[in-house]
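Case study 2.
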Amino acid sequence: MNLDLVREEIAKYLNKRVSVKIYGMRNKNYEYEGILSAVYPYVFTVFIDGSEKSFNYADVIIGDVVIKPA
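Prediction:
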């Protein structure tokens, strides 16, 4: 899997509701639902509960962040 393919796949969800699951350290997992608001060369942002959170594509590639349509 390469960065360009991941970026293109995530760009398909632009301005749509998505579910973001984050697998953190020490078994702390978080799950958010929001609107994919922007796609940049190295990060994408999701508008969640009145604030914007940014995530990078490298975390998607290694599996720390999973994004899918809600």
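The first strand starts at residue 17 and ends at 23.
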